[in-house]
Amino acid sequence: MSESKAGSASSALDALAKTPSRTVERFIRKASVPVYLLPLGPNPENYFIMMEFEEMLEKLREGLLVRPILMLYVGRSDFDHSYFADHLKDEFVRQFSEAREQEYSKHQVDIEVMRLQKESARDEMARPLRAYPVT
Questions:
Q1: Domain coordinates in residue numbering, the chain
Q2: Selection from 36, 31, 34, 25 nearest residue 58 by Cα
Q3: Which of 55, 48, 38 is nearest to 96 (CA)?
Q4: pLDDT tens digit at each of 135 positions of the chain
Q5: pTM score of the predicted model
Q6: Judging by DSSP bridges, how do beta strands 47-51 and 65-74 pair with one another?
Q7: Which residues in 63-99 are b (16+ Cβ under 10 Å) and which e?
Q8: CB 3.0 to 4.6 Å from 37: which of 71, 74, 97, 113, for a disulfide?
Q9: DSSP conformational letter for 76
C-alpha cells in the first residue's frame, strides 16, 4: 500500500476512534458467526473448526464495516483453550478468505453476463435501419 493510502486509512481510523460510540455503531454492523468445534477422535486437541459466514457476508453487502461476534459451539470442553484461541485466529482468516473469494467469484459471473448483454445491445443498436422507399 502506498504511503498516501496508508496515511489516509490511518487518519480515517484515528477519526473513527475519536467518534462517539453511538455514531460508530451506525457504521459498524454486528454479525454473529457460528463457530462449531467438532471433535474428530478421543484426543481433545483433534478437532475440526467449521464457521458459517452467511450473516457476516450479508451485513458486509449492507454496511460499511462489520464486527464479527463469534458464537462458539463445542462438542467437548476438555481442550486447551489457549491453543484453540491461537488456532481459531488463523482458521477464521483462512475460512473467511475462502468465503470472500467464493462471493467474489459469484459476482464475477454476474459481471461477465452484464458485459455480454451490454455488448449484444450495442451490436443491436449498431445495425443499420432498414431503408423504406419514400413515396
A1: 25-125
A2: 31
A3: 55
A4: 444 445 566 676 677 667 666 666 777 878 899 999 888 888 877 888 889 988 888 888 776 688 888 898 887 778 888 888 888 888 999 998 998 888 888 888 888 888 899 988 888 777 766 666 666
A5: 0.56
A6: unpaired
A7: eeebebeeeeeeeeeebeeeebeeebeebbeebbeeb
A8: 74
A9: -
